[in-house]
Amino acid sequence: MTFSSNSPDPHSLESQSPGNNSVARVLVVRNDKLGDFMLAWPALATLKAAAPAPHITALVPSYTAPMAEACPWIDEVILDPGDEAPASEQQQLLKTLREKAFDAQLTLFSTPRIGWLGWRARIPLRLAPATKWAQIFYNRRITQRRSQSAKPEYVYNRELAEALIKALGLTPGHATPPFWPEGSASRAQERQALAASLPLSAERPWVFLHAGSGGSAVNLSLDAYAYLACEVDRQLAAGHHARPHWILTAGPGEEANADALTETLTAHGLSAHRQPPQAGLAGFSRSLAAADAFIAGSTGPLHVAGCLNVITIGFYPARRSATPLRWQTCNDDDRRLAFHPPESAVETDMTAIDLEAAATAIAHRLAALEAAPSTDIIRESP
For 266-277, what is the mean pLDDT? Predict the structure, then answer.
């Protein structure tokens, strides 16, 4: 990680740290998809752990705004109307940012519009990755070479937060999983609510399976997920372990596929159920705390589960920009499994993943839950 800076900036202050008696006002920008935003939570937690803790405002699109409102590390949310918004909305956003008088802007993924916006808003300290020509609008730039995918995305984000903490003269703190502690603490409540709707036993693992991709991730096919679930179920039964309850989740427009997969698993003798409807994105996200494990492609819901410190089981393509390392979930190291095609396969050929080996690893991980049963679950009848 390398620091660099621009030539003298007309918006710079003699000192880019707030006064001793003031709290730094920081604008954090991550205005893209859900998974990207969830991988910003470790950086936000790192900022909030600094002393004195800064006031954090997030600039986000309307889609992720419910999650920004739920984030314990964010004090205020401003909606970004987006690149295609009319000039009047862009001017109103600029006016709002100027009125907020931010001390610093941290842009985790920069675009020319956002860089120019921060410069025009006269934010004195503006920090972003040193990538693409949009970096000219920033007076603190961090060379990370993310295209090499040498680190997880959330680690790159944390490095930017740590650089900003140093630039503001704050004292670093320490942030560890779960990065959504309130959501994780609601596990018992979420399990009670799910058990009130579905015939579930707490003596069996509750495995959430999200077969959708949100249109952005290469994923397993429905047939592949059906084979995987059946093989996990078979191996657990053969080892005299509790067979899971499979709870099928879906995003907008993915309901039909989730229904079809539920019917397929039920026809094969598995205990499979569709998740009941949830109250919006934040409600759906909180509901994932009920899971003992969450299986999905590299999608937003997988990264929500990571923030909740749920066991995550992810399926990734082999291309460098989307590897299991680059898009690793931000839960504890021992609470994630990841699978991808071998190096000899076409990088997006998900059929090359050894599903039998994956099922064996998953079954082994679920069997280990019996040795450490949860203490936050009220026992339901089978």
Answer: 98
Whether the domain at 2-167 and the domain at 181-371 fall into the same CATH topology: yes
Burial class of residue 54 (count of CB atoms within 10 Å of its CB; 0-12, 13-18, 19+)? buried
Pairing of β 336-339 and β 311-315: parallel
Largest CA distance in the chain: 70
User: What residues does each domain of the chain span?
Assistant: 2-167, 181-371
pLDDT grade, residue 216 (50/70/90)? low
What is the H or E stretch that residue 379 is in?
Answer: none
Residue 140 pairs in a beta bridge with: 127
Chain-centroid distance of CA 299 in Å reads: 8
User: Residues 347-369: what's their mean pLDDT?
Assistant: 95
Rounded Cα distance, 181 and 188, in Å: 13
Measuring CA to CA, which residue among 340, 300, 373, 337 is closest to residue 153? 300
**16, 104 Cβ separation under 8 angstroms:** yes
* Helix or strand run (H / E) with residue 67: helix 65-70
Write the CB contacts of 109 (distance below 8 Å, at least 6 apart in sequence): 29, 30, 31, 32, 36, 129
The CATH code for residues 181-371 is 3.40.50.2000
Burial class (CB in 10 A: 0-12, 13-18, 19+), 304: buried
Average pLDDT over residues 95-111: 96
CATH topology assigned to domain 2-167: Rossmann fold (3.40.50)
- Residue 173 phi, psi dihedral angles, 5° rounding: -115, -155
Residue written as token pair 């998900």: 350
Q: How many CB atoms lie within 10 A of CB 299?
A: 25
Query: What does the alpha-carbon distance between residue 272 and residue 104 come to, in Å, rounded to a whole number?
Result: 49
The residues pairing with 293 across neighbouring beta strands, listed in sequence order, are 207, 311
Q: What is the pLDDT of residue 2?
A: 43
Nearest residue to 147 (alpha-carbon basis) of 133, 131, 127: 131
Contact 317, 342 (CB under 8 A): no
- The alpha helices in 124-221, defined as continuous H runs, are 153-167, 181-185, 187-197
Q: What is the mean pLDDT of residues 282-301?
A: 97
CA dist., res. 337 & res. 282, Å (int): 25
Query: In the predicted model, what is the mean pLDDT of residues 266-276?
Result: 98
